[in-house]
Amino acid sequence: MSIKTYRLWMVVITMIVAALVGWSVTTGNVLVPIPTFLAGAIILYLCQRRVKAFTEDERARSIVNQASRRTVEIVVIFMAISGATLIAMSQGGSPDLEPAGLTLAYSVCTILILYNILYTYYSRKYSGKK
């Protein structure tokens, strides 16, 4: 299987999994999402193993690292601003906005803690220090 075919299948499988999970959420069926997600992940893994030539150079790896880092930075900033805004709006007369704001705020904290743990781990792993 070529990398182009693999990417096509990846998009198709992701769309099918997203559609099934979305459908199950709207119908209230809690038994469908987890097996659907696991089946999609297994199918993608099996497809990835069949890819004949999967080459990745340092430039591509650097681009992926930069893109993912910037994405996390932008999402964390947006979530922090949104969470603070929702918490502030809940003080002004909409108390049902507070749980959403707190969820976003706690999510930002969790993401930042996880980022720091992983940064420390990989920094030690690749610096040669134990």
Can you describe what's shown?
It is a single chain. The chain is flat and about 60 Å long. It folds into 2 domains: 3-49; 58-127. 3% of the residues are buried. Helices cover 82% and strands 0% of the residues. It contains 4 helices and no strands. It starts with a helix and ends with a helix. Helix 1 packs antiparallel against helix 2 and helix 3 (58-91) packs antiparallel against helix 4. The longest helix is centred in the middle third of the chain and has 34 residues, at 58-91. The chain is mostly helical. It has helices at residues 3-27, 33-49, 58-91, 98-127.
Quick description:
The protein is an all-alpha fold and 130 residues long.
Show the helix and strand layout.
Layout: H1 3-27, H2 33-49, H3 58-91, H4 98-127
Helix pairs in contact: 1-2, 3-4
Calculate Rg over CA atoms. Answer: 20 Å
Number of strands: 0
Beta-sheet strand percentage? under 5%
Structural class by sheet pairing and helices: mainly alpha
Give a quick account of the main beta sheet: strands, pairing sense, barrel closure: none
Mean pLDDT: 88
**What is the global morphology?**
flat
Number of helices: 4
Gap from first CA to last CA: 40 Å
Helix content: over 70%
> Order of helices and strands, N to C?
HHHH
Q: How many domains make up the 3D coordinates?
A: 2
Q: What low-confidence regions span 5 or more consecutive residues with pLDDT below 50?
A: none
Give structural attributes:
single chain; 130 residues; mainly alpha; 4 helices; 82% helix
